[in-house]
User: Which sequence fits this backbone?
């Protein structure tokens, strides 16, 4: 079935308006439980429940488990398009946190490939309890007998998730400078103390490349994004923006020669000339790359950075600014990249504190 997007927008706004006074306490409890579980599990589950509740609030006949309209039947709907075209913009306007910040919040596992959300969905590890709650809420949705039931449940989602909008700290506005050796110490400490699923290392790499190429040319994908069109965690676009010039894989876990070779091959298959791997795990063992045809050269070409120091050295050499200005820029760029990649608020604060300690 086709859910009218204009009507869905009106319904969401109405639920937002009533959320303070007329939400369902039972659903508030369920959303709070899911929010707690999603501190450990993928936050996409939150966006899905918001989408499902919106669909039911528009039309009770919808089966919120049938998330691809193409599977047929008059109860299936396109959850992905409803999330992208209505839920994301309306939630942003209403100050509602969906857990994930991308334009297509359901473009992640397990919803990326599912037609039906049920017990057969491939869910592993720390996501199992969160997904159990998702299934429980879907069953509860099927018990809605009145549109008002769905509206009050959606209002509960909005009310609870408004409390979770992250308020990120900012780097002090007053002038500060950080020397290259100090920035290196900050980076090593920051990444080594908490990987945060690879987010910290990836944000640092993106922030460093911002110094060389500018934020407009550097793209940093979200962690575990299956829709990524190019291999690599961070890519650099051409000046025209029409092609990809460089693709960088960021690994804060040990890599093998096979890992590196596979990445470089995938990059080459996409027509990207320059590939680099940032392999900065503290337990990283020596890897023989002589058989892989790597150049022992600069950032421009197939290259492996075995340490933060080697990457920082290259960045400072190629940066258009002076070294002191470049490292100071990098400190600020990393803050923005941490927010973009949905790092925890305390992670951003930790970066700022470490930088502050080195600039006093």
Assistant:
């Amino acid at each position: 079935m086709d859910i009218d997007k204009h009507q869905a927008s009106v319904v969401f706004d109405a639920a937002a308006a009533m959320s303070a006074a007329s939400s369902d306490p039972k659903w508030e409890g369920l959303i709070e439980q899911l929010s707690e579980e999603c501190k450990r599990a993928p936050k996409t589950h939150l966006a899905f429940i918001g989408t499902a509740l919106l669909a039911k609030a528009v039309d009770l006949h919808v089966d919120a488990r049938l998330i691809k309209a193409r599977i047929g039947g008059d109860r299936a709907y396109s959850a992905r398009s409803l999330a992208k075209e209505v839920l994301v913009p309306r939630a942003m306007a209403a100050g509602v946190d969906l857990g994930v910040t991308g334009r297509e919040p359901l473009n992640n596992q397990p919803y990326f490939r599912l037609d039906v959300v049920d017990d057969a969905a491939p869910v592993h590890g720390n996501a199992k309890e969160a997904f159990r709650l998702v299934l429980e809420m879907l069953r509860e949705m099927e018990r809605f007998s009145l549109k008002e039931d769905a509206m009050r449940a959606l209002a509960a989602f909005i009310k609870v998730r408004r409390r979770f909008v992250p308020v990120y700290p900012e780097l002090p506005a007053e002038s500060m400078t950080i020397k290259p050796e100090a920035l290196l110490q900050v980076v090593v400490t920051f990444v080594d103390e908490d990987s945060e699923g690879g987010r910290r290392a990836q944000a640092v790499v993106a922030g460093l490349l911002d110094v060389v190429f500018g934020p407009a040319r550097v793209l940093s994908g979200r962690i575990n994004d299956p829709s990524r069109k190019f291999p690599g965690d961070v890519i650099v676009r051409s000046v025209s923006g029409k092609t990809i010039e460089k693709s960088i894989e960021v690994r804060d876990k040990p890599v093998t020669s096979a890992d590196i070779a596979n990445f470089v091959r995938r990059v080459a298959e996409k027509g990207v000339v320059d590939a680099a791997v940032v392999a900065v795990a503290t337990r990283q063992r020596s890897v023989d790359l002589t058989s892989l045809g790597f150049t022992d050269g600069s950032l421009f070409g197939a290259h492996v950075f075995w340490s933060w120091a080697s990457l920082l050295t290259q960045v400072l050499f190629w940066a258009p600014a002076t070294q002191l200005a470049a490292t100071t820029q990098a400190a600020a760029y990393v803050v923005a990249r941490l927010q973009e990649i949905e790092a925890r608020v305390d992670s951003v604060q930790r970066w700022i504190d470490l930088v502050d300690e080195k600039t006093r």
Observations:
- The beta strands are 218-220, 234-237, 244-251, 274-279, 303-305.
- The longest strand covers residues 244-251.
